[in-house]
Every structure is written in structure tokens, then in C-alpha cells.
């Protein structure tokens, strides 16, 4: 089975997912369906200025799905507690997801740490299902555990001092995100493309890179107890596909820095881009099982 991610809007280059992918077949070999069997999105962080709601709206408008997994942090309640920021586009994202559910898409919402209040409402509401975790069965029989991932983040899942550290880290992250518009305004004046300071910092800071690697390994190890072939999460805003023994680790990324998702047609994941046609994209693949 092949898997792919999608690039940042207006980026002009394929998102390399921390350089953990290898370039495979050209996307010209594939035909992009307008309707996918399954799609996974995570960490939209609606309610923050860093959310790229326009890119997410394009993705939702141009594609339909039999099943749509919202893998946590759809709304950033932490940020909304500090101050209300809710432009029309953020409301449009919610309305678009609800509209898809009304038209038959099975929406499975798995809350994260920033929207953990939603866990109080776990249950089935028409075509919308809210649950803490899920196991997705692919057409080929592969079992994929779906979690947000904060359960394996000791800073977020802890209490007391560790909990306050999570809030402090979130404030620092939001500060870096707030600098992105100014930086990219200057870059556009010089004819340069989009660039994320926060994403750059994560790639360059040794402790952040070490944390990401340990987090991925912890998630894959956690999946062993569910007797699954793969695990898919979000949380760390770092799209990736890696092999940990017999378990495949998927991270569908975010809609703040990289604007990434995973979409599935039959047994193949296809790339999708809001900025360029499919056949102009490079495919990012992992080896077949």
C-alpha cells in the first residue's frame, strides 16, 4: 500500500514531512477521484489566528468522502479561553463538515487536548460520531488505530506542574505563529514563497526533533496493545509515515503550518493540493508491506 501527504497552500513545493518520505511514482500515473473512501484531518485549531481555514475550506469543498475522520484539535478551546477570535471562515469550516454529514458522509470526531471538552459528549448524532479512539478497517483488511496522540504526550497528559508547562509551551508556539504573517508579508515583497518560523524552529531545535522521534515511537508502541497493523494520529503538527517493527505510524499533520491530510480511494492514498493540479504534484510514498 502506498501513502502520501499534501503540500502547504501557496508553498510551491512538496511537503517532505521532516524528510521521512521518499519520492516515488509521478502523480501523472494516477487519476484523482473527486470522492474518496476515507480522509483524515487533524489540528485545524479553529479559533486561532494561525489556522489556515481557507486551505481547509478548499480541501473540503473540492473533495467528498464516504468517511471523514477529524483527529482532534478541530477547535482550540485553550486559545478561545484567552480571547475570542472566530472569523467567518472558521464558522464556514464547521458548517461545511456538518453539511457533509447531512449529505451522507460518516464523520468520526476524536477530540484532542485543545478540544478535550468535547469528550463529555461522546456518542452518535446522526452521521456524526464522537469517540475517544477508533479502529478503522481498510478494504485490504488492515486495522488502523485512530487517536489524537496527546495521550502519549507526558507534558499534556500529566497534571500540576507538567500541565502548566503544556500551557506555557502553547503560548510560546502561538507567539511564533503570530510572527508568520509579518515574516511572509516581507517575503512576498521580495517575491518569495510561504515560510513558517514555527515549523522551522521545530525542525532545527534538537530537543524538538528528539521529542518528535520519541513521541512517534511511543505511539507505535501504544498501538501494540490494540492488535492493529497501523496507528494514525495528529497532535504534534508533524506529518510522517514510519515503520516501527510490525506497526506503521501515520501522522496526518495539521492545518496551521503544513496543511496536510491523508486521503484514501481504494487501497491507495492520493496526494491533494489546493494550489496546483494533481498531475503537477510529486507523490510521496513509503514501501509496500
Q: What layout of secondary structure does this protein have?
A:
Layout: E1 22-26, E2 35-41, H1 53-62, E3 64-70, H2 77-82, H3 88-102, E4 106-109, E5 123-125, E6 128-130, E7 134-137, E8 143-146, H4 154-157, H5 161-189, H6 197-204, H7 206-223, E9 230-233, E10 240-244, E11 247-251, E12 262-264, E13 282-285
Parallel strand pairs: 2-3, 3-4, 4-6, 8-9, 9-11
Antiparallel strand pairs: 1-13, 2-12, 5-6, 7-8, 10-11
Helix pairs in contact: 1-3
Report on the structure:
The chain is an alpha/beta fold. It has a single domain (22-285), classed as Purple Acid Phosphatase, chain A, domain 2 (4-Layer Sandwich). The protein has seven helices and 13 strands. It has helices spanning 53-62, 77-82, 88-102, 154-157, 161-189, 197-204, 206-223; strands spanning 22-26, 35-41, 64-70, 106-109, 123-125, 128-130, 134-137, 143-146, 230-233, 240-244, 247-251, 262-264, 282-285. Strands 5-6-4-3-2-12 form a six-stranded mixed sheet, with helices on one face. Strands 7-8-9-11-10 form a five-stranded mixed sheet, covered by helices on one side. Helix 1 packs parallel to helix 3 (88-102).
Question: Could you give a short description of this structure?
Answer:
Helices cover 31% and strands 20% of the residues.
Write a concise keyword list for the protein shown above:
Purple Acid Phosphatase, chain A, domain 2; alpha/beta; six-stranded mixed sheet; five-stranded mixed sheet; 289 residues; 7 helices
Strand content bin: 15-25%
Give the averaged pLDDT, no decimals. Answer: 75
The N- and C-terminal alpha carbons lie at a distance of 7 Å
Report the radius of gyration as a whole number of Å.
18 Å
Structural class: alpha/beta
CATH homologous superfamily identity: Metallo-dependent phosphatases
What overall form do the CA principal axes indicate? globular
Amino acid at each position: 500500500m502506498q501513502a502520501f501527504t499534501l503540500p502547504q497552500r501557496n508553498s510551491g513545493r512538496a511537503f517532505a514531512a521532516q524528510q521521512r518520505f521518499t519520492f516515488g511514482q509521478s502523480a501523472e500515473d494516477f487519476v484523482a477521484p473527486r470522492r474518496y473512501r476515507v480522509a483524515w484531518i487533524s489540528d485545524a485549531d479553529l479559533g486561532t489566528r494561525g489556522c489556515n481555514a481557507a486551505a481547509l475550506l478548499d480541501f473540503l469543498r473540492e473533495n467528498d468522502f464516504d468517511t471523514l475522520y477529524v483527529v482532534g484539535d478541530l477547535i482550540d478551546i485553550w486559545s478561545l479561553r484567552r480571547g475570542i477570535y472566530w472569523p467567518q471562515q472558521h464558522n464556514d469550516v464547521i458548517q461545511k463538515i456538518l453539511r457533509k454529514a447531512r449529505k451522507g458522509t460518516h464523520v468520526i470526531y476524536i477530540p484532542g487536548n485543545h478540544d478535550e471538552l468535547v469528550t463529555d459528549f461522546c456518542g452518535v448524532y446522526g452521521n456524526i460520531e464522537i469517540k475517544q479512539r477508533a479502529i478503522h478497517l481498510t478494504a485490504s483488511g488492515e486495522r488502523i488505530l485512530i487517536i489524537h496522540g496527546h495521550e502519549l504526550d507526558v507534558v499534556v497528559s500529566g497534571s500540576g506542574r507538567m500541565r502548566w508547562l503544556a500551557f506555557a509551551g502553547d503560548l510560546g508556539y502561538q507567539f511564533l505563529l503570530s510572527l508568520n504573517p509579518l515574516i511572509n508579508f516581507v517575503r512576498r515583497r521580495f517575491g518569495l514563497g510561504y515560510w513558517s518560523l514555527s515549523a522551522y524552529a521545530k525542525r532545527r531545535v534538537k530537543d524538538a526533533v528528539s521529542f518528535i522521534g520519541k513521541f512517534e515511537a511511543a505511539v507505535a508502541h501504544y498501538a501494540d496493545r490494540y492488535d492493529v497493523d497501523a496507528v494514525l494520529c495528529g497532535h504534534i503538527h508533524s506529518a510522517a509515515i514510519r515503520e516501527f517493527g510490525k506497526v506503521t505510524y501515520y501522522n496526518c499533520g495539521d492545518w496551521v503550518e503544513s496543511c496536510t491530510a491523508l486521503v484514501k480511494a481504494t487501497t491507495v492514498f492520493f496526494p491533494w493540493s489546493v494550489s496546483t493540479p494533481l498531475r503537477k504534484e510529486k507523490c510521496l510514498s513509503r514501501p509496500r508491506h
